[in-house]
Structures
1.
Amino acid sequence: MASIARHRDVVLVAAALVVLFGATELLARGYRAARNERAETHARRGQALKQEGRYAEAADEYRAALSFSPHVFTYRLSLAASLMSLKDWREASRHLAELRETDPTSGAVNLMLARIESAENQPEAAEAAYQRAIFGYWPEDPRGNRLRARFELIDLYDRMGERNKLLSELLEAAAEAPPEPELRNQVGRLLLRHGAEEQAVEAFRESTRLDEKDPGAWVGLGEAARAMGNYRTAVSAFRAAQRRAPEDKNVARLLVETARAMDLDPTGVRLGAAERNRRSRELVRRAIAQIETCGDLSPAARGVAELARGALAIRHRGEDDTPQMLALAEELWHVRAPGCKAAQGDAALELVMARVGRDERP
């Protein structure tokens, strides 16, 4: 009987312990749930305040959320974003460094760190962080976020003067960009601004195929083709832009300038020898007139101008002096006064001289 009583006591004690442990677990769960709920409440307040631009108050709410749930990734990331809006780079960096320890592949964390390094004028560190962001993990809209990071890196390279790296990233962006006309236009404008005219033409062509009604895409195509000296394609593109935006005075100006340049250019492959010669001599005449409108001539400019006038006065029947005329036009353009540009005279002349100069370079 005693053994039965002892067994019953053991069972009762065990049952009591189970009940006690269960009650303790329920209390612990309730405590954790209450803390999580309070953390979420603070985080929601922080989000609302951040949307209103009240970043200091938002940061306080996110700190409160972290005091209840210190290991929630999104709370700390949102706190860092609020601190960055306040330009509190030091505290923001501390939170982001902690997050990167947790997840080194996070695209969002590395992008924010890159922005801080850039803001603090640490270009090499920013470059490395941008690269990690581009190749990092993005749970939402990975292509869009990677492109955004790549464009920011392109801007960094622009400020660093790293043209080769910039163009490499731009070509990557062109390859990765989704078929959206405005995005293609953005890539095209950047390529054109940094001297990659051929790739810019391709970007704008793609944009016109995606949305043939967009005058901006046609203008971009025209400007890129014009920069290459392909005036025929440029005129065609500007005409297409003008049909879509007939009231745009800038398009009209670009069309007139480019058409005049096309009629002046002596380097066209379809031209006969006589027409090339006539245009090259006209180029020299207009180059002389251009530099004379720019104020006092330097002795060197006066000497070249006199030489050019003498060459124009000599003309042997049937002789093609196009190479001599182009060389004189180049020399005249080289010795013109600083700041002597087409705004003071002949825009078509400046376009053609840019092409002649490019063709003459090795």
2.
Amino acid sequence: MGSAGAGRRDVRVAVIGAGAGGLGLGILLLGAGIDDVVLFDRADGVGGTWRVNTYPGAECDVPSHLYSFSFALNPGWTKTFAGQAEILAYLEECAERSGVRDRVQTSTAVRSVVWDDERCRWRLRTEHGDEWTAQVVVSAVGMFNAPAWPAIAGLDAFAGPVMHSARWDHDVELAGRRVGVVGTGASAVQIVPAVAGDVAHLALFQRSAPWILPRNDRPYSDDDKLRFAADAMAARRHRKGIERFYEGNTAFRVGDPRLAAIEAFARGHLEASVADPGLRAALTPDDPIGCKRILLSDDFYAAIQQDHVELVTAPIDRVTASAVVTGDGAEHPLDVLVLATGYRATDYLHGLEVVGRDGRRLHDEWASEPRAHLGMTVPGYPNLFILYGPNTNQGGNSILLILEAQARYVVRALRAMERDGLAALEVTDEAFTAYNRSLDDDLAGTVWTSCRSYFRTPSGHIATQLPHPAGWYRGRTHHVDLADFHRRPVVEG
């Protein structure tokens, strides 16, 4: 479809977002014979976060064969943990091969969706002013789509280039320049080793040290790729083995002995990698392992020990035209500033106004505590499904397992609507409340309560994490219980 054109249009299903979640849903919808579908994406192509995140060193921290759809295996993954370009190519191929790409409106951000209760349809308005209507809207914008810009005094005064890691500017030359990187999360741990060899000086500003496990990245041999291509069952067994390993080693409950074992492994990695006791102490986390995202890297510790690389642990006080000044009074002269400060992860559906039944607004209801039934549906918003919604982020496995389970749930819901002649489904307050009460009980015993992280809202509510393994969620979403929904029949005539 390309970019949006003028006029008003009507479809059965409108999907907002053409990343992994939206594409997976689109593929399953077409496979189920539900082809009255349109997908919108604000980028100039499909791929979502893997299209827009192009910073140096960008790679997945889930093994390649598991970071793929069970219905679209890729026998040709080149290594254990694929890089950004290879993942994007995989998603683009999935879109083309399935026919979903022809249903994507690229370079088109949806700004608002408003429920028309009389017609039982959603009214969508795009950034171009075009209007669409749809019986069902599915948000697949993901959790990592709104970069978090830090509130640092004087940031606007910096004279050199300032860029967020999620919006990398490849026109900015780093070679031979003094570069500052703010943050030590997943992107920073990949960026620092990737650029350290080119820059004249690199200052990494650390607020808290992350727990890091060895990545153990290895290439797949030509024989491996040929075997997976010739024997689909071999590829499935390989993928299933990785899934079982991650499922069996996912730990997020306080007192789980697996957490202690993982911490010991991470400490051993640090001790084996960093000989200097002072630097090692600075790189030793203060937080309990698992309360923040655990990172994977084989080369970060080596990069941080290079003579021209500096780890700065004093807090940032302010930014001047040419430097970052820390709380200890030290001035760190810089030419380029990189903000590896993550995303507004708990600001779900950022940039999209959602107005439901009786004029209620989803962002108002989610101001302090985003919640949904199974992470997908909310009372007052009929025929709205959310992929990668509140409390569906994985604590140690592939998010594609969750996204695929959610896509299958949406397909089952649409089939149930067809079968029973329903115009609308709206989750009941009772089902919503019961699910979230149980969720709160299960979250109370997790390590995520032990520190501040992007998992939590400013009020302290854990809004992103699922306190169960992927298999639990897959089982919980395997059946659409219509008793959980208010059901409105189609009115003929």
3.
Amino acid sequence: MLAMIVVCVGMGVLFSAGHAAQVNGASSAAERASALAGARSGAVTGSLIGLLIGQLVIAVLGALTITSEYATGMIAASLTSVPQRGTIYAAKALVFGAVALVAGLLTSFASFFAGQAVLSGVQASVSLSQPGVLRAVVGGGLFLAACGLLSYGLGVVLRHTAGAIAASAGLLFVAWTLSMFLPGAGGWLSQADVDKWIPFNAGGAIWEHVSGVNLFSPWIGFAVFCCYAAAAIAAGLIVFVRRDA
């Protein structure tokens, strides 16, 4: 959790400092005005850019929440103590989900305020009261919590830490990267058709201050992302209840 906070806040500060440097480095009034407009438009997303890495960090923790018990054999003791498998599964998901949500919100708000502190030096910062800003910052915390629960479900299905982490990274990061190689438009499979269904694009719409042309609206995109997480959780429950420890 600490690593996630440090990484996300650090990246947000670096990106915000980059925007501030562009403003300060402008050689003319017109260039400064253009750089200032760009810094303000990217003030929110830039300060939250660390969520790109934060999603992978919390995915590791989500997987370890269950796979560590299989690795050590402690799952047998847990099931002996509480034979109701559904109860164990739900309890782990609820406890981890609550912790991930609190940590995610803390990370998102800390990243935002740190980034705005840097941008305030060039009068390019924004406030939570501006349209869409609070939604984006709160959405960043919700996004991280959903990433962790997605990984938790995959961890139960695969029962292997490395496999669960690889699967989570594939869904959250690799699929997003590969989609960039699709043709922009036309054909039977293009970025315009696929982009909004990519897990990261769908979930990320809630914390990106300005959504892309081909993406879902913020809350619709997050709902789609939650469906991915719910599917993983449901698959994990089926496997957990039916398969021997």
4.
Amino acid sequence: MTRAKICGITRHEDAELAAELGAWAIGLIQWPGSVRACEPAVAAGIVAQLRRQVACVGVFVDPTLDELSRAAETIGFSHLQLHGDEGPAFCAEVARRTGCKVIKAVGVGSRADIQALEVFHTDFHLLDAAAGAERGGTGRTWEWTLLADRRSKVPAILSGGLNAANVADGINATRPWGVDTASGTELEPGVKDPEKLRAFLDAVAGTGAGAGEAAA
């Protein structure tokens, strides 16, 4: 089955519901520039409560290695998502230093953006809509047919404007390892809508799409 990551979590109750409904992972944004940024103390509480139930992903934009090391130690993330201009060597060092699995994210505007990911031998690639300074969370989709030329064996997570109405189409078009949503399951930035969240996860489960081997 295709896995689902629910990103932009800022509240315990939303994290608990995502886990209860079968999400593979929750994303806790640690970039102050995001309207969905989660306070580190809140993130630590959520991770302490749910780390045995879901993958807990810290989302960063152009952090330092020291920042990531501290966050991995004090908050307890299992995965680190790098959504900035981090390079392959940096990503490799993050994995070595923290012991966390690494998700390298890229905004896709052309085939060149997908090809540029080929040199990142991280645990996952997350393919989002190109968003410039916003770094995701825009609610916009992108041209999924661009994935046809992807050659990487790294598990792909499809992101960008996914919601209950279109996620099955995205899965059927791209056969990703997983999918990721933030705005598509919200009442407002950082606050989840329980019905949208339930509908999204039901839609993902209903596809029955094969999506590669487990890479938890």
